[in-house]
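Weekly structure sync, notes
Attendees: PL (lead), two postdocs, one rotation student
Agenda item 3: pending single-chain targets
PL asked that the sequence for the first pending target be pasted directly into the notes so everyone works from the same version. It is reproduced below exactly as submitted, 95 residues in total.
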Amino acid sequence: MPEIERLTITLPAQMAEDVKDAVHAGEYASTSEVVRDALRLWKANRALQLQELEALKADIDKGLADVAAGRVADFDPARIIERGRELLTRRSSSV
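Predicted structure, written out during the meeting:
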């Protein structure tokens, strides 16, 4: 069984009420369970953010390598806007 450590936390009144409401509604057995569940979700979200950051860094490195190798095109803001609108139209029509 994992070691248990007791912590005291301070929450804004509304958050504390939300935690108590979840327990009273039977969604959780205790306020500690609510906090543990919230921390599990935070940890998963944080891991996802770190993965996305690493992917972004890899894309930046690839872009910088493309620039260094001369694989670049002229900047065309009108084309970028057009492509963005096309992507939004496709996304909107698939919903």
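Discussion points:
- DSSP finds three helices and no strands in the chain.
- Helices lie at 13-24, 31-68, 77-93.
Action: rotation student to compare against the earlier draft before next sync.
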